[in-house]
Amino acid sequence: MQAWKDYQEKNKDRFLNELLDLLRIPSVSAKSEHKADMVSCAEAVKQRLLEAGADTVTIYETAGHPLVYGEKMIDPSKPTVLVYGHYDVQPADPLNLWNSPPFEPLIKDGKIFARGSCDDKGQFYMHVKALETMVQTNTLSTNIKFCIEGEEEVGSPNLATFVKANKELLKADVVLISDTAMISMEHPSIDIGVRGLSYIEVEVTGPNRDLHSGVYGGAVANPITILAKMIASCHDENNHITIPGFYDDVVEATTEERKLMAAAPYNEEEYKTDLGVKELWGEKGFTSNERTGIRPTLELNGIWGGYTGEGAKTVLPSKAFAKISARLVPNQSSEVITEKLIRYFQSIAPAGVTVKASEHHGGEPYMTPIDSKGYKAAAAAIKDTFGKDAIPVRGGGSIPICALFEKELGIKIVFMGFGLDSDNLHSPNEKYDLFNFYKGIETIPHFHKRFAEM
Amino acid sequence: MQAWKDYQEKNKDRFLNELLDLLRIPSVSAKSEHKADMVSCAEAVKQRLLEAGADTVTIYETAGHPLVYGEKMIDPSKPTVLVYGHYDVQPADPLNLWNSPPFEPLIKDGKIFARGSCDDKGQFYMHVKALETMVQTNTLSTNIKFCIEGEEEVGSPNLATFVKANKELLKADVVLISDTAMISMEHPSIDIGVRGLSYIEVEVTGPNRDLHSGVYGGAVANPITILAKMIASCHDENNHITIPGFYDDVVEATTEERKLMAAAPYNEEEYKTDLGVKELWGEKGFTSNERTGIRPTLELNGIWGGYTGEGAKTVLPSKAFAKISARLVPNQSSEVITEKLIRYFQSIAPAGVTVKASEHHGGEPYMTPIDSKGYKAAAAAIKDTFGKDAIPVRGGGSIPICALFEKELGIKIVFMGFGLDSDNLHSPNEKYDLFNFYKGIETIPHFHKRFAEM
Predict the structure, then answer these.
(1) Nearest residue on chain B to A327, judged by CA atoms?
(2) pLDDT of residue B362
(3) What is the CB-side half-sphere exposure of residue A300 using CA atoms within 13 A?
(4) Within chain A, what is the greatest distance between any pair of CA atoms?
(5) How many angstroms separate the CA atoms of B262 and A167, rounded?
(6) Distance of alpha carbon B414 from the chain centroid
(7) DSSP readout, A162-218?
(8) Model ipTM?
């Protein structure tokens, strides 16, 4: 479609500048101090959707941050694609590790450095510009609906209420999401699954106040030591997770799928060099790709307790804390695993401490059937613009709302992500390659065309 | 000595107000932002010593914080007592746990609440007021020297240099220190030993940047998990320390000493209630008093890594840190144990991470012979004012400079502390009972009199 290419080439600088404006809004959903930024960002998304050609755009208030819904309906007899994305971003901490300010986007070496550049502002915005391309070139072949929420990074606590209350509004034939990565631009791939998530916070309390470690040390349980012992007990010597019943509902991947995964391009030396580690680590009996794809995991996301400032302080602290999350695979249930994690930490607490374990957000694992219409349209679109077959892979991350959409709307989800694993999602110096941004805008109209033709 | 009592009764409010002024200076030696406060505090100590009757007072600059030296020489043929104390205090963090601001002293229920009220401003200041009492009543029976340093809470890194360069200046017959606690005012006691200290900081680095825990989790060593495993490995199931060679140089306490300790007043239920714990914890085969007195310990003083803010962040952090200290008993050596700790953490690091372990300040254990002149004078002074025999006990804390004084000056140290274990040293809501403050001022002149008579 030469018309698309021409239009996009002519407007590429503006497309980029609009994205940069969006990236300047620090829409951090996890921090209450950014509440006003969240509102500004939702307003900006609404404005951009209207300019791109949406017929109507509405900001829906929720119990948390607002959600932006927009649509361009051309013909009720045509198929409808529901685009899901999120305008909220992860916190930018630790700030001192950023090479440039997280909310002052910097273009360097063909990459956009900013919090949210890839996850997910840069990716959902490709759909906005794809809509504009099709509207301006009068080539829309599907109805398009947009559901851009502001709470993905905190677990979408209010999306279910919205979806359940607006089933008719959201009625569609497929959900299209760009919030994942490809192996590389040379090896385009499509995620056929995302992992689920259970996330808990553990608070261990020893004595009722911070104590002098000389006067009391050795006679009272130290909550840091106890917490460390608890964490250490979660993996055995083969890095197998020891929480009772953790693997009960895991559907083992087939030999065929494992063969296919082993054939996907992967260079262990490059992987290690990129991460700066001498050796990899993980569950015995599985490759790195399997460990992050078909296997559930348990990770420590944060830990704190006692004196963490400059110099030395001889304190035996009253409390120690940890943030701990598990990634889940089919058919593990987030609720069941969260309960097992909480019960485990409570059950192994020695009598000298008390343990409070509470739940953060979770989400169910999801898999896209590769014989679904949506998957086939995505594969065809990628073939159109990359000239290569997409490799189906299982992604390690989580998009908790997939199971919700399937259950409430009865439709399949297809992931067409244009990020890279090296994009530093959730890390300092998050980036998104300009090439990938433009390649996404180029490919998405092909998806709509292919989907309409199927 | 009625003259002492009369003088002290008449001036008690002023004594207290002077102490409160001293407590208002946030002389936190560990934090560089308090450098100017340290200088102000040294100046204030100098001024108070001069007002109390010292002949000369000099502020000695060091490579770190200044040291205050003062003296009142009455007769070279009389014995000389060297009073050691420190005007620096521990950091006040965590601030949110204080019921009143740490540097705005509050008198409540007969207690002075402030950082440093007991450790050690309130205690060394008793000696300043005891000097004043003896000078004003013309009853001095010893020469008195004061060495009040500003770096005790960071391990006295520059005291050795000062002592070695000023042996003649510091020449004395005994070192008298009030920086410890009694069992209670009903059961006065004298510390006959303090433990040594080794303090290290461990930094575990996994990947070279914070990673998305979904994309990489399970395939890369998580530094928090590894650090937790390392910490968990430091104690076995009997809470015996597993660091190779840790107990090699421990001189076991005699059966007689253990019998004496068992006879000292101790109520386990009260101890647990005060600390708010259901069960105590510690090395199998030893009582609580033994665990904090005659046994070496290993305590976690701080831990941090990953996301520690509000809400949830799915990060696999690049780094995790811990502050870890050991309390040592005779004849363990701080240098040897520090080296063993560092070597241990480095040796157990798996190949997927790198471990940097570095040293904070340390100090040697010390014991006062109960047949020494200083101990006997202290015991007699306590008998004078409490009307009871003092119980000899081993303290759990550390006063790293004891070994230094003994080695360089060839004299014994005697501890005459008036604090209580419940004074929240190094913790929020540090306090010092008014009764104890005044009892110390009352008792100290008796020490000088008794020491001169021996």
Answers:
(1) B214
(2) 86
(3) 32
(4) 79
(5) 74
(6) 15
(7) HHHHTHHHH--SEEEE--SEES-SSS-EEEEEE-EEEEEEEEEE-SSS-EETTTTBT
(8) 0.83
- pLDDT of A38 reads 98
Give yes or no: residues A86 and A141 share one domain: yes
Residues A225-251 have a mean pLDDT of 98
Is some CB atom of chain B closer than 8 A to the CB atom of A272?
A: no
Q: B310 vs A32: CB contact, 8 Å cut-off?
A: yes
Instruction: Give per-residue burial for B191-230: e unless 16+ CB within 10 Å, then b.
Output: bbbbbbbbbbbbbbbbbebbbbbbbbbbbbbbbbbbbbbb
Is residue B144 one of the residues assigned to a domain? yes
Query: Tell me, what amino acid is at B321?
Result: F
Does one domain contain both A352 and A220? yes
Residue where one domain finishes, among candidates B359, B377, B396: B359
| H or E element that contains B108 | strand B106-108
Q: Which helix (H) or strand (E) segment is B196 a member of?
A: strand B196-205
b/e string for A147-183 if b means 16 or more Cβ within 10 A? bbbbbbbbbbbbbeebbeebeebbebbbbbbbbbbbb
CB pairs under 8 A between A and B: 373
**Does residue A431 contact residue A112 with C-beta atoms inside 8 Å?**
yes
Q: Give me the DSSP letters along A125-154.
A: HHHHHHHHHHHHTT---SEEEEEEES-GGG
Amino acid at A347: S
- The tens digit of pLDDT for each residue in B34-62 reads 999 999 999 999 999 999 999 999 999 99
- Among partner residues A281, A302, A314, which is closest to B426 by beta-carbon distance? A314
What residues form DSSP beta bridges with B327? B197, B297
Bridge partners, residue B90, by sequence? none
**How far is A368 from A379, CA to CA, in rounded Å?**
13
B residues 171-200 closer than 8 Å to A (CB): 181, 195, 197, 199
A117 at B interface, C-beta within 8 A? no
B228 and B218 in a single domain? The answer is: yes
**Residue B272, domain member (yes or no):** no
Collapsing DSSP states into helix, strand and coil, what is residue B297?
strand
pLDDT in tens, B80-124: 999 999 999 999 988 999 999 999 999 999 999 999 999 999 999
Cβ atoms of A62 and A161 within 8 Å: the answer is: yes
Domain housing A323? 196-250+296-359
pLDDT band for B400, please (50, 70, 90 cuts): confident
Q: Which residues is A431 bridged to in the sheet?
A: A113
Q: What is the pLDDT of residues A173-217, one digit of tens each?
A: 999 999 999 999 999 999 998 999 999 999 999 999 999 999 999
Q: CB–CB of A303 and B308 under 8 A?
A: yes
- What is chain B's percent helix, strand, coil content, to nearest 5? 35, 25, 40
State how many domains chain A has: 2
**A434 touching B (Cβ < 8 Å):** no
Chain A, 363 to 422: residues with Cβ < 8 Å from chain B are 395-398, 421
